[in-house]
Amino acid sequence: MPHTQRQQVGSRGRCSSRLLPPPPPLPCCPAHPSGHTHTLQLTNSFFFLVLTVKRPPVITTQPESVTVFSVEDLVMSCEASGNPPPIFRWTKDGEEFDPGSDPELKVSERSGSSAFYTLSNTMDTLKQYQGKYVCYASNELGTAVSNEAILKTDAPPTQQKEKKVNVKAEQGNSIVLKCNPPQSSMEPIIHWMDWSDSSDSLTRFFFLFFPLPLSVIMFPLVLFLISSLPLSTELHHIQLSDRVVVGKDGNLYFAYLTTEDSRVDYTCNVQYLATRTILAKEPITLTVTPSNSLLRNRRPHMMRPTGTQSTYHALRGQTIELECIVQGHPTPKVSWLRKDGELSESRTTKDMFDRRLRFSNISESDSGEYQCIAENSQGKTTHTYTVTVEAAPYWTKEPISQLYAPGETVRLDCQAEGIPSPTISWTINGMPLSATDKDSRRSLTTSGSLILKDINFGDTAIYQCRASNKHGTILANTNVYVIELAPQILTEDGNTYTFAEGQKALLECETFGSPKPKVIWESGGTSSLLADSRVNPLANGGLEISNITHDDEGIYTCSVQNTNLSVSAEVEVLNKTEILSPPQALKVQPGNTAIFTCVASVDPKLGAPLLQWRKNDQKLFESHSDEKFTFEGPDLIIANVGPDDEGVYTCQVITKLDMAEVSNTLTLCDRPDPPVLLQITDPKHRTVTLSWTPGDDHKSPVLEYVVEFEDQGSKERGWEELKRVGGNKERASLSLWPYMSYRFRVIAINDVGKSDPSKPSEIHNTLAEAPDRNPEDVRSESTDPDTLVIAWEDMDKRNFNGPDFKYRVLWRRVVGSGPNWHTNYTTVTPFTVTDVGNFSAFEIKVQAVNEKGEGPEPDPVIGYSGEDVPLEAPMDVGVVLINSTAIRVNWAAVNRETVRGHLLGYKIYLTRTGSRGHHRGRRSRELESTVVVMTGANEEKRVISDLRPYSHYTLAVTVFNSKGEGPPSEALSFKTHEGVPGPPMSLTLDSPSETEMTLHWTPPSQPNGVLIGYLLQYQRIVDSDDSPMQVETIDDRTVTHLTLKGLDRHSHYRFYLRGRTAAGDGEPIMKAGATTLDGVPPANFSLSVGENSLNLSWAVKKRHRDVSFQIHCISKNDGRKWERTEKVNSSQSFYQLQGLTPGSHYRLRFTYSNTTFWETDIETEGTASFLSAKETHSLSFPLPSSFPAEGVTEVQPSFATQGWFIGVVSAIVLLLLILLILCFIKRSKGGKYSVKDKEEGPMDSEARPMKDETFGEYSDLEEKRTASQPSLCEESKLCSEDNLDFNGSSAITTELNDESLVSQFSRPSEGPEVLHGLPDNSPLNPTTVSSATNGMPNSVTILD
């Protein structure tokens, strides 16, 4: 439905109901096509018209037919509107009826209504009022006529006196319990119930407890006892099932009885809704006696209706039910079908356990023959129903009430349908046309239309069209109002209409006036709207545009012809909602998950759409308890699919303007059930026909059947596939082997998978026959001389065709043996014949034989006895030199008899013995290499390439067969010509200056001749790759280097070097490189400062020579003199200063060639009194302006310089050191030391270096602590003699690898004299950096 952004307004055309809106409005116009409710926007002049213009009467409430059961039910009323208010009158059975003149009736008349009801207190007086009533409402503009209302009287149903019924029947029989409801015009509702839950349980217990003869005798006594007991009772419905059903006649039908059906009070309760009455019939006692034998199965038999055919008549729109109640054991299953067409699913439903077929709103198309089919395992029965549907009259086209101007021609169309066809008649103000004055201006058409020509004010009236047949009469009132009114446009100006592309657009232009205003539509973008076949002007003034597109957007103007009245409207067209990825039809196995996906495209102006999923047109909601249905974006997820989930699923994408929907099915499918009832029929020579009955395909059609067989004589081979047939087949013709015992089974395959195999068939044996084939691939496999080995492919056992199977082997010489064959029998392959000579030709064949006879005559094949090696070598071997690397070898073909076998070809042995450039002694030291070239059997020459130039070769030729090679030919020597050399073995580049390059090389490993010099080519490497090539020719073969000058210091070069012989230039060796630039000191430093050390790093410049620089350092805290390091190489990229004091300021100066190129200040971490290492951090310092390089790059602290890591390692080393001290004290037997030395020392005991055999001092407190912990040394391996050697500094070197601990032992003292007592490898002495450290010394100290 298009969304219209506007204030919608009132009536359209000349519809008098919209013209005169005061309530109630005249129902003279058709409903608004768009379904909108309109609000009338009127001018002052229109309000004046509303107050003054008269309105014809219109029946607003029709009198209703009624059946009177009591005096309160007799009420007949009629309501109508009009201006002036209408006057009412009544007719009864076509005669005038004045209820006000009847003393038994009371009349109630208000403005716009008329009603009467009875004052009588007895039903007998009401029978005189039965009849057909019609209400007439009149004013000066005409008379409106109501529909007929039928009043009937009927006595309410009453309770009838009945006798108690006792019914006795045997178990297994069928029975009918009668209800016999009282006769009434009302349709009763039947409820079969009982009041005897407790007694019913006792009755069942009685029949189960007592044996059969005794139970039958004692049953009356039991009933008497049950009736006298004070048992609790409740009202319960009889449990209905397909075995126990209620018929439309109210009776209770049992398809067959069981002992549990015994009850003492089957009660039929008859309910009448109109009188609000329930009548309880006399209870029925049913006694079911147990059967003396097993229950006998019975074929279905019709209980209601009886016979084989019945006829039903119905009227269009009614609801009817076809009934099919059957008896039989087991309970028959009932199904319905339409014999002459498809059964309507929309108008038919099944009820009462499929025993009823209900037609809702039946139509003429439902006329036809229907069949009920009842069947069980014993057979089936059918009943045919002929349904005839007729129809009371119904409108297909009603006349329309309108306003007309004088002089117009009025056509009132009135068409109706019905069965039989209705007759059409007209009345004016309730009077038949025949009873009015004849007027030539009035005429009737054959289709029933009434035409009024040249109308005037006197033609204002209400015209009634009646349609009648034997089933009833319908009536339509039509107002013809002749009046003159000025035109008005009632539609609001400036409306905006929004539609989706492809919709039908409706633009409103409702007008009012008499004569009828003529509306003209125009559009700014279209010269003539009516030229477009999609545009249709409507009779009510509106404009309809079918299949609207974006091109239709714009302003549309509606104007009234010959006036200045007009309104405009804007049309906006949005993209229609489309489903891009619709849900697909799904076939899902039970228990799996099904996912429907629905992706749509929506115009952005419409906002987010609503995605609604439906199943069988019912809305789906997300499941929260069982998670059956889950919505995830565009997906509908159905978990654990079961039978209830099958159906049609619809994706609806709904916007405020339009909707798109696509439906598809979810089908529960599964592997098919295996076929059943396998039967072997029509046995013939080697064939049988296997038939089967298909199993349930579970809604996935069977694609094919696989027939498998099992050989009972070779069960170890299992089941094997024999044949496949289409899924529409139920039999297969099978080709079989003789002399086999078969069992068959069948597997069904559908899209889901394979069924389980069917049960095997019975065993089928085939008769023995002579073999119908012989072994294949008969051949000679002779390998040894003087033997003939005949081989073939073993035949499959199934081709033996009979018992005592064997092979008959036949052979004879091709030449000299005559027509006779040598014969032998065997059961296995191969068969060997000896003493037959070397490589002799034989005819051989093998034939299959069994007890029943021989196979077909085989065709002989040629085979040879075993081969031997050839006897002679090829003759006339010669060599022709083609070039320095290729030769052509020739020889004469050998005599085939000397080959002594199949000639396979020749082998050429080619051996290189050395180079021609070496003297004989040198050549003898070279390794010989031999190449073998094989040729075909018919070749007598061969070209061999890829030889080494300038070399000595020998050549020999042999002949070979499958047994081996013969003797070689006489060796033939030859020499290859000189060739171009190979590439030099190496080429290195060295740059003595920024513009020079020296090339060093070694001669080619394969000169391939006499080397006479070299050719050097080089060029600059540029992007365009078109740099000119420079050439240097070297004529001295002993030269192995060359210096090129005048090269560009900014360019890279590519060098090609080739060797030269008299044959030409050889292959090149290539090397690319550039000259080395003069060295400069580093221009970019990164510093990482710790407590006792400084890490410096820098980027090494490529192509620059290595230079040395020095670092000078001075402490700002004490003002000592500058200290310097040894020379640092610029290629190191890293350097470390150690021995710094924590919490101190230093000035650093970097010098190169006695010139300072950078200075900076640093501050170490920590304080002078706090010796523990702290976390280092990175600093970034700018370079001085004299070195405008890139500046110092900040370096993130490394793992080894993290404070926590240094602290942990320092603590561990300190504990080990204390342990060593305690062990040393223990070894020295507890000697005591003076504390005075410690007080005079410049450093604390931990920072003072060791000298004069003194490891350190301790206080009395330390001595006491040591004495209290003797176990620290007794159990430790550190106390061993091997670990207590403190001569020299090896112990210190071993234990002081950690940087933080080194700093504690190597902190500078007040003067340089402190250094004199240190060992040579102390961390404060200069340390030489080894190559193994990659230019990164472990410890570097500052030099004076």
What's this, in brief?
The chain has 1344 residues and is mostly beta strands. Helices cover 8% and strands 41% of the residues.
Report on the structure:
It is extended and about 160 Å long. 8% of the residues lie in helices and 41% in strands. The longest helix is centred in the C-terminal third of the chain and has 25 residues, at 1203-1227. β7 (105-110) and β8 form a beta hairpin. The strands form 25 sheets. Strands 3, 5, 6, 9, 10 and 11 form a six-stranded mixed sheet that branches. Strands 12, 14, 15, 18, 19 and 20 form a six-stranded mixed sheet that branches. Strands 1-40-47-46-43 form a five-stranded mixed sheet, with no helix packed on it. α3 runs antiparallel to α4 (212-228). The chain contains eleven helices and 96 strands. The chain starts with a strand and ends in a 39-residue tail after the last helix. With 1344 residues, it is mostly beta strands.
List the helices and strands and how they pair.
Elements: E1 3-5, H1 16-19, H2 44-52, E2 55-61, E3 66-68, E4 75-83, E5 87-92, E6 95-97, E7 105-110, E8 113-118, E9 131-139, E10 142-145, E11 149-153, E12 165-170, E13 175-177, E14 189-194, H3 197-209, H4 212-228, E15 236-237, E16 244-246, E17 252-254, E18 263-272, E19 277-280, E20 284-289, E21 298-304, E22 309-315, E23 320-323, E24 325-329, E25 333-338, E26 348-351, E27 356-359, E28 368-376, E29 379-397, E30 402-404, E31 410-412, E32 415-419, E33 423-428, E34 431-432, E35 442-444, E36 450-452, E37 461-469, E38 472-482, E39 485-489, E40 495-500, E41 505-507, E42 511-514, E43 519-523, E44 535-537, E45 543-545, E46 554-560, E47 566-574, E48 578-581, E49 586-588, E50 594-597, E51 599-601, E52 610-615, E53 618-619, E54 629-632, E55 635-638, E56 647-654, E57 659-668, E58 676-684, E59 687-693, E60 704-711, E61 720-726, E62 731-735, E63 741-749, E64 764-765, E65 779-780, E66 787-791, E67 806-813, E68 822-826, E69 831-834, E70 841-850, E71 853-854, E72 861-864, E73 875-883, E74 886-892, E75 905-915, H5 920-925, ...
Parallel strand pairs: 3-11, 12-20, 22-29, 30-38, 40-47, 49-57
Antiparallel strand pairs: 1-40, 2-4, 4-8, 5-6, 5-9, 7-8, 9-10, 9-11, 13-17, 14-15, 14-18, 16-17, 18-19, 18-20, 21-24, 23-27, 25-28, 26-27, 28-29, 29-32, 31-36, 33-34, 33-37, 35-36, 37-38, 39-42, 41-45, 43-46, 44-45, 46-47, 48-51, 50-55, 52-53, 52-56, 54-55, 56-57, 58-59, 59-62, 60-61, 60-63, ...
